[in-house]
Amino acid sequence: MMKTSRRARSAVIAAAAVAVTTLLLSGCTGRQAANEPPAEPQDDSPIVIGASWPQSGPLAAAAAGLHGFEAYIEMTNAEGGIDGREIKLVTADDAYDPARLADNQRSFVEKEGAIAVVNFGGIAVPGRPYLNDKKVAQIALAGQTPLSDVENFPYTRAFWPDVVWEGQLHAQWLQENRPDAVVGFIGFNNDLSESHIAGLEAGGLTPAQVAMVPPGTADLTAQVSQFQAAGVDTVIINIGAPTIGAVTKYMDEIGYEPTLLLAGNMADFVTVVDPAGADAVVDAYAFHWGKDPADPKNAEDAATQTFIEVMTEYGYESDTRQALAFNGYGLGAALVEALNNAPELTADGLLEAWDALKDTENPYLQDGMMLDAGFGGRLIFQVQLTQFDGETWVPQGDVIDLRDLGIVE
User: Fold this and answer.
1) DSSP class per residue in 240-299
2) Bridge partners, 116 (sequence order)
């Protein structure tokens, strides 16, 4: 027979007495308490988010964006998560290969139970059908126009502005400032370029020359020579590393000096200014919406300083100059804000909260800008025209709201 110590028996008697006294004071009987509906147990299971992202292959440099996203999620968990629940972030390398992305997403959903999956770039487009069929939220760090099709793909959203809007901005700016420009366009051979050119054409401008190359291409000497021979005096570039830096540097080396309009999410120090050299980028224009941590003008910016501190704390100090890392960090902030506001921590609850974000601060956005959900499930509708002066990107005029220009509904 199991024996109980005197101290243990005394403790049991005392506990029983306290219980009886509590019942008497509350006017309740033990039966009445038993008949009351039990409180629902607190759900403390992790909130699973998958991230299929290029960490190798032609867009390996995009891994910095994932690191920024990871850092924000790790900081959120350290601060208590979402209503006390940890965000379990499961990542996988897709090498910018749609087939690998498809495998990753099936694993996130069917093995991990993810309520949302985060993707980078254009391969999010072929990833839509599976996630929408499974009713799992898909959030892309991308600008392709197909990702605005929330009517046919209601579980897909994108963080960056739609590239078609940037194309329209470029067309409007050129008609006002360079009406006789002979325009060339350089971009990826995918729907990013198709979206940008569609915007140019919607704004009444058709490029005289177009060069579309695979991601990772560095040598565009033949295309630049063709542009120069055709009298192209204005070049729009919407392509990532290493291409944008290499082509801008080559133009400078051969003394070819067209007016440069660079895509807002590519016109940063690490992607173009450092590899091309500041002199090669002088006088280039860009419509920016996010902050570049490597731009000297942001050295004293509080949000930028916090970004650098968080990246360093969680082991990503090598990416603290990366604007793409700040992009991912900003995406993490938007996702966490939506989770905090979600009526339920499900894919549907997350998207409902995402679509309800209004006048929401985000550390990544330039001063005076807010997240504001709208057309196509997008959140960013404000941009700032800037020009590079050899040291920093200098604002030209006021912040532009695309909705005020009639570019966006």
Assistant:
1) -TTHHHHHHHHHHHTT---EEEE-TTT-SIIIIIHHH-HHHHTT-EEEE-B--TTSGGGT
2) 49, 137
**391 shares a domain with 260:** yes
All residues at 6 or more sequence positions from 92 whose CB lies less than 8 Å from its CB, including other chains: 50, 51, 52, 53, 104, 107, 108
How confident is the model over 253-267, as pLDDT tens digits? 999 999 999 999 999
Distance CA 238, CA 167 (A): 10
User: What are the pLDDT digits (tens) for 114-142?
Assistant: 999 999 999 999 999 999 999 999 999 99
What is the CA angle 140-54-47, rounded to 5?
Answer: 55
Tokens of residue 282, six digits: 């002088």
Q: What is the DSSP letter of 82?
A: B
Burial class (CB in 10 A: 0-12, 13-18, 19+), 202: middle
Query: What is residue 4's predicted lDDT score, i.e. its pLDDT?
Result: 32
Which pLDDT score, from 0 to 100, does residue 248 have? 97
pLDDT of residue 38: 55
Taking the chain, what is the end-to-end CA distance rounded to the nearest angstrom?
Answer: 80
Q: What is the pLDDT of residue 216?
A: 86
Q: Both 263 and 396 in a single domain? A: yes
The pLDDT of residue 24 is: 36
Give the span between the Cα atoms of 275 and 334, in whole angstroms. Answer: 30
User: How many domains does the chain fold into?
Assistant: 2
Q: Give whole-number Cα distances, 148 to 91, 154, 320, in Å.
A: 24, 10, 30
What is the per-residue DSSP string for 137-167?
EEEEE---GGGG-TTT-TTEEESSPPHHHHH
Containing structural domain, residue 190 = 164-288+384-401
pTM greater than 0.85 (yes/no):
yes
The ranges of the chain with pLDDT < 70 are 1-41
Q: Does residue 279 share a domain with residue 190?
A: yes
The closest alpha carbon to 328, from 61, 49, 67, belongs to: 67
In this structure, are 151 and 171 located in the same domain? no
Regarding whether 56 and 126 lie in a shared domain, the answer is yes
C-alpha–C-alpha distance, residues 105 and 90, integer Å: 10
**Distance between CA 14 and CA 22 in Å, rounded?**
12
Residue 346 lies in a domain: yes
Q: Determine the Cα–Cα distance for residues 243 and 213; give it in Å rounded to an integer.
A: 9
- What is the separation of C-alpha 1 from the centre of its chain, rounded to a whole number of angstroms? 65
CA distance 334 to 328: 10
